[in-house]
Design a protein that fits this description.
The complex is a heterodimer.
Chain A lengths: L1 E4 H15 L3 E5 L26 H5 L4 E3 L4 H12 L4 E8 L7 H8 L2 H4 L9 E6 L14 H5 L5 E3 L4 H13 L4 E6 L6 E4 L12 E4 L4 E5 L2 H15 L4 E5 L2 E3 L3 H11 L2 E4 L8 H12 L9 E3 L10 H7 L3 H13 L7
Parallel strand pairs in A: 2-3, 2-4, 4-5, 5-7, 6-7, 10-11, 10-13, 13-14
Antiparallel strand pairs in A: 1-8, 6-12, 9-11
Helix pairs in contact in A: 1-7, 3-4, 8-12, 9-10
Chain B lengths: L4 H26 L14 H8 L7 E3 L5 H6 L4 H8 L33 H15 L5 E6 L6 H13 L3 E7 L2 E2 L2 E2 H4 L4 H7 L4 E5 L3 H16 L5 E6 L19 H8 L2 H11 L5 H24 L17
Parallel strand pairs in B: 1-2, 2-3, 3-7, 6-7
Antiparallel strand pairs in B: 4-5
Helix pairs in contact in B: 1-2, 1-12, 2-9, 4-12, 5-6
Classes of the chains: A alpha/beta, B alpha/beta.
The complex binds thiamine diphosphate and magnesium ion (MG).
Magnesium ion binds next to strand 4 of chain B.
Chain lengths: 342, 321
């Protein structure tokens, strides 16, 4: 066990799985970098933010493949390789670039198993960065996990910390279905204790980062951290919260969510993705349908507005759900009282 | 080739403006005041300017993530650009787009682009507009050697020929897509790609304004005269990293120093025009001074400009909703 950053935790998961299984290969734009360069330096980048650094040196060019800037072909190639014996981890860099290769994910990889009557296995992992907070503007900042969650056949992982990232990525690589693994780009330097040995965290099992009596908060990815901060502040005023990190949006641990809401009767959902048809609407629908009687207050969603992600810092800060907004939403639900009928 | 004096002067001014703009951004970025990703066009000035010197506001261009040079060459003002890069309300895109999304459709500038390969399909559409509206204009897609491997780019080459539209595909080949050399990433060559899609191919040294101007003139005339699309392959080099902050370990130690010393398009231009007696050095020096103060003023104004306000967040998602 030692302190590791989100970046290191992901790198270690990849390294350990590549050591364990020679069928695990890596591909993507500049996952190593330096090929065709004039200095002869290899592994010049190790990923645009350095996440895959060092893997080329250990595993060589046959297993760490730099690709041309051709997402449709290499993401499709990863799907094809997965269906024929390899276990590729393909990096899409920014998840926004899925616009260039969605067909290969949505119509190909996701549907093989069902369309082919259960005959195919597609052990593919697609890693990509998501999220606002980097001033990267509208085409490099989206939180597109709802898009993938919508597609039957895909599993979708949104890790909330370094520990979570390592265990969930190893699980993703060992899983036999296509998995979309989304890394919040502003979290790469976050650190916490992460075991040195490989371990897995099962999909579809939510993590309760804290338990309380008054309000349940369901949060995804980076928002788990924000929700915990809000909960810390609220605890000082005697409002105690349960915070649920679902870890995977598909499969979704509906049981844990319903149990917690049944206990607290109050629910706030924090989702960094665009507010229409996102995970917050999904969870709200689930609870409205399955736990209506337990609710003591309307469900509140804390999401960005229905706009593209703006560039300027002032606007971006308003865009992303904040600790303050979460806190306000929790206070509103906590103080809500059903009006007595006359 | 004869180039009118006013075109020479305005071209030099554009190239110098780009150089000064980018060198200044390099310095300002290092102070930490500029948010987001910034990709500099330093070293590539003659390409954007050599092409855009043939265009008017009616013609359309689409740019890339490395878009500042194309914007300036197409006439976008440096004040609005600088303010945009600083995320100010006075920016050309009101601070909502930043460096990678500078656009001014009123000038035929269809936008820098955060998506590699995003421009070529859009330019097919712009060329179609020009053809159907019979306005005599052409549409130009600037894209990199890296972008030349995107399916969207290759499909656009095909579509443009199939539709016989006035599009010019300008491959700005600086030898790298991020940290990967084009000798690794580009199979075959651009010339054969053009031939494969049935369009004429022009090629030039992007450090030489006159070579770019000449080749671009031919490619653009071909398209403007209704003969369908053309490809222009410009060989050039970038002087800074892929983006600000890139340590460029993939490039040989002396590579950039050598480029700066031996392949500076501004030095080449100056030498050529003064030796041929087309312009005198003092006129060029005056322009240098004027440009420098213009950039100083743009930076000062950007830093002093108001930030966007809360209401801007929700504005302009739709025309109506
Ligand atoms: C669809 C897509 N894929 C990848 C990227 C990341 N990216 C940004 S610029 C770039 C390199 C582009 O190289 P090139 O087209 O040669 O242009 P240059 O940077 O050399 O001007 C890459 C891979 C992107 N922005 N969009
Ligand atoms: Mg390039």
């Amino acid at each position: 066990m030692s302190k590791k950053s989100f970046r290191q935790a992901i790198n270690e998961a990849l390294r350990q799985e590549m050591r364990r299984d020679p069928r695990v290969i890596l591909m993507g734009e500049d996952v190593a970098g330096g090929r065709g360069g004039t200095s002869g330096v290899k592994d010049a980048w190790g990923g645009v933010l350095g996440v895959t650094k060092g893997l080329l040196t250990e595993f060589g060019e046959d297993r760490v493949l730099d690709t041309p800037i051709s997402e449709a072909s290499y993401i499709g190639a990863a799907a094809g390789a997965a269906a024929t014996g390899l276990r590729p981890v393909a990096e899409l860099m920014f998840v926004d670039f899925v616009g260039c290769c969605l067909d290969q994910i949505m119509n190909q990889a996701a549907k093989f198993r069902y369309m082919f009557g259960g005959k195919a296995r597609t052990p593919l992992v697609i890693r990509a960065m998501y999220g606002a907070g980097f001033n990267a503007a509208a085409q490099h900042s989206q939180a597109l996990y709802p898009l993938f969650t919508h597609i039957p056949g895909l599993k979708v992982v949104v890790p909330s910390s370094p520990y979570e990232a390592k265990g969930l990525l190893i699980e993703a690589i060992r899983d036999d279905d296509p998995v979309i693994f989304l890394e919040n780009k502003v979290m790469y330097d976050d650190e916490e204790d992460v075991p040195d040995d490989p371990y897995t965290i099962p999909f579809g099992e939510a993590n309760l980062t804290r338990e309380g009596d008054d309000v349940t908060i369901v949060a995804f990815g980076r928002m788990v951290k924000f929700a915990n901060e809000a909960a810390d502040r609220l605890a000082k005023d005697g409002i105690s919260c349960t915070v649920i990190d679902p870890r995977t949006t598909s499969p979704l641990d509906t049981g844990t969510i319903l149990d917690c809401v049944t206990d607290t009767g109050r629910l706030v959902i924090v989702d960094e993705s665009s507010p229409r048809c996102n995970l917050a609407t999904d969870v709200a629908a689930l609870v409205a349908e399955e736990a209506f009687d337990a609710l003591k207050a309307p469900i509140r969603r804390v999401c960005p507005p229905h706009t593209p992600v703006p560039f300027a810092t002032v606007l971006e800060n308003l865009y992303v759900p904040s600790v303050e907004k979460i806190e306000a939403a929790v206070r509103a639900v906590a103080s809500y009282r059903v009006k007595e009928e006359a | 080739m004869q180039i009118a004096r006013d075109i020479l002067l305005s071209s030099y001014r554009s190239m110098r403006t780009i150089r000064e703009f980018e060198e200044r951004l390099h310095v300002e970025f290092a102070t930490g005041e500029i948010p987001g990703f910034v990709h500099l066009y330093c070293g590539e000035e003659a390409s954007g300017v050599g092409v855009c010197s043939h265009l008017t506001e009616k013609d359309t261009i689409a740019s890339t993530h490395r878009g500042h040079g194309h914007c300036i060459a197409k006439g976008v003002g440096v004040d609005g650009m600088m303010a945009e890069i600083y995320g100010r309300q006075t920016g050309v895109c009101r601070g909502k787009g930043g460096s990678m999304h500078i656009a001014d459709l009123s000038l035929g500038m269809l936008g820098a682009n955060g998506i590699v390969g995003g421009g070529p399909p859009l330019i097919c559409g712009a060329a179609l507009s020009h053809k159907i509206l019979k306005d005599g204009a052409v549409a130009i897609a600037f894209y990199g050697d890296g972008a030349s491997n995107e399916g969207s780019t290759l499909e656009s080459l095909n579509l443009a020929t199939v539709w016989n539209i006035p599009a010019v595909f300008v491959v700005e080949d600086n030898g790298y897509g991020e940290a990967t050399g084009s000798s690794y990433a580009c199979a075959g060559n651009q010339k054969d790609r053009a031939a494969g899609f049935g369009m004429p191919y022009f090629e030039c040294d992007g450090n030489d304004f006159f070579a770019v101007y000449q080749a671009a003139g031919e490619a653009i005339s071909h398209a403007r005269n209704g003969n369908g699309p053309a490809m222009l392959h410009v060989h050039l080099a970038r002087w800074y990293g892929h983006f600000e902050g890139d340590a460029m370990t993939y490039r040989a130690d002396n590579e950039v120093a050598k480029l700066r010393a031996e392949h500076d398009c501004l030095v080449n231009f100056r030498k050529r025009v003064t030796e041929a007696g087309l312009l005198d050095a003092s006129a060029l020096n005056d322009l240098d001074t004027a440009v420098k103060s213009e950039i100083d003023a743009a930076v000062a104004a950007a830093k002093a400009a108001p930030l966007p306000d809360e209401a801007d967040l929700l504005k302009d998602v739709y025309v109506s909703y």
